[in-house]
TrEMBL record:
Site (Interaction with tRNA): residue numbering on this chain: 127, 339
Catalytic residues (positions): 102 (nucleophile), 200 (cysteine persulfide intermediate)
PANTHER family attached to this UniProt entry: MITOCHONDRIAL TRNA-SPECIFIC 2-THIOURIDYLASE 1, TRNA 5-METHYLAMINOMETHYL-2-THIOURIDYLATE -METHYLTRANSFERASE
A Pfam entry, by short name: tRNA_Me_trans_M
Protein name: tRNA-specific 2-thiouridylase MnmA
CDD domains: MnmA_TRMU-like (cd01998)
Regions that span the bilayer: none
Amino acid sequence: MSRVLAAMSGGVGSGVAAARAVEAGHDVVGVHMALSRRPGSLRTGARGCCTLEDARDARRAADVLGIPFYVWDLSEEFVEDVVADFVAEYAAGRTPNPCVRCNERIKFAALLDRALALGFDAVCTGHYARLAPGADGAPRLQRARDAAKDQSYVLAVVAPAELEHALFPLGEAASKEEVRAEAQRRGLAVAAKPDSHDICFIPDGDTRGFLRRHLGEQPGEVVDTAGQVVGSHSGAYGFTVGQRKGLGVGRPAPDGRPRYVLSISPVERRVVVGAAEELRVGTLHGAEPVWGAPPPAGPAEVTAQVRAHGTPVPAVVERAGPGLLVRLREPLSGVAPGQTVVLYEGELVLAAATVTATGRG
C-alpha cells in the first residue's frame, strides 16, 4: 500500500480518480489546490477549476469516499508561474498555453514537492493519460485510451522523474460517459457536473481586456505583407498568429479574401496580416525540450501535435544544439511562437518543447 495524495479539483474526473485509488488499496488523502487569490470572483457553473464551488464539490466527494481532505493555498505560486508568465509571453508577441504551464509548474512540480516532503509516495490526478515502462525502466507518458479526452499533450512537459510519482487512474477509461456513470454509482454529486474549460483566471473570457488591464494601451499599426497600413490596434499583445476576427482592418484585401494574423512585432507594435495560405508552415524550432525518453542520435520519425486537441501530423525531429528542429511531413497552419509542440512515437510521448520560430519549408 502506498500513501497517495489525490489532487481533487472538484470535477467528476478527479473525484473518480481518487475513488479508484482508494479502491486499489492506497492510503489516500485528498487535497484541493486553491489557485485564485479571490476565488469568489471567478465564474461558477464549473467553467473554471478553482472556484469556491469547486472547493466545496471536492470536499463533498472526499466525504463520500471517507478520506481526509485539505485545501492548499497555491495562489502565490499560480500567479507567479502561470498568470505572470501568460502576460509576459503575450507582451513578447508569443502565444502561451496556460494549461500546459499550470500542469508543469503547479499541478505537478509544486504539488509533488509538497507531497514528497510530507511523506507521500505518489500524486494521483484525474488526467486522461497513461504511463508505460520505457526501455530503461523509467515511466513514459502515453496517450489515454479515450482519444477524445486524451490529455497527454498538456502533461508532456512534466519531467520523467516526476512521472515516477504519478498515478493516472482514468487513463484506461473507455469514455467520459463511463467515468460519469461510475461517479453516479459511487454516489458522487459531481457526476453530472460540466467539464471545466476556458482560462480559469480570465472569468469573463475577455483575454484582450485582461491583457490591456495588465499592459496598458499600446497603439500601433496593422499592415499587410507589402507594408501597407490597413488598420490600427490598441495593443499588439491582443493578437495571435492565425487570428481572423477582431483585426481592426478598415478595408478588405484586394482579392476580397479574409485576412489572418501572420506575425506580431511587439517592439514595433506592428501586426502583419495576410492570406490563409501564408500561415502554412513546414518547420518548427523548439527550445528547452523535455525528453520523455533518451533523445534520438539522429533524425527520427515522429508525429507532431501543436494544440491540446490538434491533429497529429507525421514529422522528422532532430536535435539542434540545446533545442530541436521539427520538419513536418504535412504543413500546419497558424502555429505561433510560444505554443508547445509535443512529439509522439506511436502513442508514447517522446518530447515537448516551446516553439520559438517557424518556417515555410
